[in-house]
Design a protein that fits this description.
The protein is of the alpha/beta class and 515 residues long. It is built from 19 helices and 17 strands.
């Protein structure tokens, strides 16, 4: 489609050519040549304008495509899929028809990724995306939501049986054998199905219900399952927990525990990581694994993250007023990172609590970044301009390319604890830790080692030049009333953290040890 500027340029070029012809015929003797020359110059300028307008138009199209598509498979991403589901629902409501949303994940993808490497993992995702796209009808949509998770929109179905038939065809297409590096590979998808208006009236609810059905299919090894409120006891508990979580955010049941980080060289505590816990009135203290995935799939991630940020910055301010100069780190999810309002929200919260931006660090995983790299990069750039620190958490377990790492405004790499725990064996984990420390140093980044559990690991990391340590050797995550006295003692003496740890258990309301 031509822009108005491009149309004007074309019109100007036509006029210029007309003037040149007229000048050669009608102009007085001696004037024709100058007029023709000027007209030719004008025509050349217009040609340059046309080429520039076309380049600008092409770049705009490329940028729009990158913002709405997954870079690995070139399929629509979560943002574009939500938009398409929204429009499909609107059309279905006018026509009195049904819409189906299918959610698929690959049961053995991690095994392939770990065995054959991330390049082949990406290739597998690309092949799966192609197979899905060629299996659905022309009016349907396939998207990659992140990781090994795909979604399919069936824009017009008669009922559950149509959706089941489509799920069966998709399952067969994905499960067909393929070869990677000469090795035969088979991955089996689990498919969850949710229909509008039967199971939800908006994209978020349909995806959440399809997610419940997908896990039911995975547990039953059924290939595909359609959502039902009484699929099994697990689904009922899951839905009840979702309802409880909505209430818990407002009821003050979500609390923060803090795990300190200390410099390896000076043995000085410089900051803490805020970790959310849910003090459930019936189930006791729940860890993030029990409720963060629910928040991710139900639209509750944003209010949950705002609650955590607010509480963490409030505590940071309280420690500062008490003379404890500490930074605080907060984890953010894929959904948070795709929220274009996040930088503005963070700025408002920093101002509300009187905390300087450099006191806050946001932790993101490699897979979080790669869910939508262009959009993630834009949000991270705005956060960086605020002065907020940005850490890549669990580094080494995802598939961020070094090119992306170089271009992202991150300040810290956190080595995943799975590598640190076994680094003393001298195998591949030790090489990964050493390489990551060197990479961080070469890129001018701070490096934090997670999972430091003994003196040997501490000493080895210090010898490698790692900057900071975090782990049970220093302290487990603790509630503020336990951690604050220990922080005061750590501030008053050199390295007391390594001699006098706070209580090494977290205790739930029901008295059970959950640390």
């Amino acid at each position: 489609m031509e822009t108005p500027a491009l149309r004007i340029a074309w019109a100007g070029m036509i006029v210029a050519l007309g003037l040149a012809v007229a000048a050669s015929v009608l102009a007085p003797a001696g004037w024709a040549a100058p007029i023709v020359a000027l007209t030719a110059m004008y025509a050349a300028l217009l040609r340059w304008t046309v080429r520039g307008a076309r380049r600008t138009q092409l770049q705009a199209r490329r940028s729009e495509h990158a913002a709405l598509h997954d870079p690995v498979t070139e399929l629509p991403n979560r943002v574009l899929f939500h938009d398409r589901v929204h429009h499909a629902i609107a059309r279905a409501e006018r026509a009195g028809t049904r819409v189906a949303v299918l959610l698929l994940d690959l049961d053995r993808f991690k095994e392939v990724n770990d065995t054959l490497g991330h390049h082949n993992g990406d290739l597998l995702l690309h092949v799966v995306g192609d197979r899905l796209a060629t299996t659905v009808r022309a009016g349907d949509s396939v998207a990659r939501l992140g990781g090994d998770e795909f979604a399919v929109l069936l824009a017009d179905v008669n009922g559950p049986e149509d959706a089941r038939d489509a799920a069966r065809r998709l399952h067969e297409a994905v499960a067909a054998r393929l070869e990677l590096e000469g090795i035969g590979v088979e991955v089996e998808p689990s498919v969850g199905i949710a229909l509008h208006p039967d199971h939800g009236s908006d994209p978020e609810t349909l995806l959440q219900r399809a997610d419940v059905a997908m896990y039911a299919a995975k547990r039953a090894h059924a290939g595909a399952a359609i959502y039902s409120g009484d699929v099994d006891a697990y689904s009922r508990e899951r839905l009840e927990l979702i309802a409880d979580l909505r209430r818990a955010i407002d009821a003050g049941e979500l609390v923060l525990h803090f795990q300190p980080k200390a410099t390896l060289a000076q043995r000085r505590v410089t900051g803490v990581e805020a970790l959310v816990r849910w003090q459930h009135p019936e189930q006791g203290l729940l860890y993030p694994d029990a409720f963060i995935p629910l928040a991710e799939h139900t639209g509750l991630m944003r209010p949950l993250t705002l609650h955590i940020l607010d509480a963490a910055l409030r505590q940071c301010r309280s420690w500062a007023d008490a003379g404890l100069d500490l930074g605080v780190a907060v984890n953010i999810s894929t959904r948070n990172l795709l929220d274009l309002t996040l930088p503005e929200t963070v700025e408002q919260l920093l101002a509300a609590h009187g905390v300087s931006a450099e006191r806050l660090e946001l932790e993101i995983t490699e897979t979080t970044i790669m869910a939508d790299p262009p959009r993630s990069k834009a949000v991270l750039a705005r956060l960086s301009r605020l002065g907020v620190g940005l850490a890549v958490d669990d580094f080494g377990t995802g598939y961020t390319s070094l090119a992306w790492l170089r271009d992202l405004p991150v300040t810290t790499l956190k080595i995943d604890k799975s590598f640190v725990l076994d680094m003393h064996t001298g195998g591949g984990d030790s090489v990964i830790v050493r390489s990551t420390v060197q990479l961080g140093r070469n890129l001018g980044l701070s490096v934090v080692a997670e999972g430091v559990e003994d003196q040997q690991a501490w000493d080895e990391l210090a010898a490698l030049g790692c900057d900071l340590a975090q782990g049970y050797f220093l302290s487990r995550p603790q509630p503020v009333e336990v951690l604050t006295p220990w922080l005061r003692a750590a501030a008053d003496a050199a390295g007391p953290a390594l001699c006098h740890r706070p209580d090494d258990v977290e205790q739930g309301r029901d008295g059970r040890v959950v640390g």
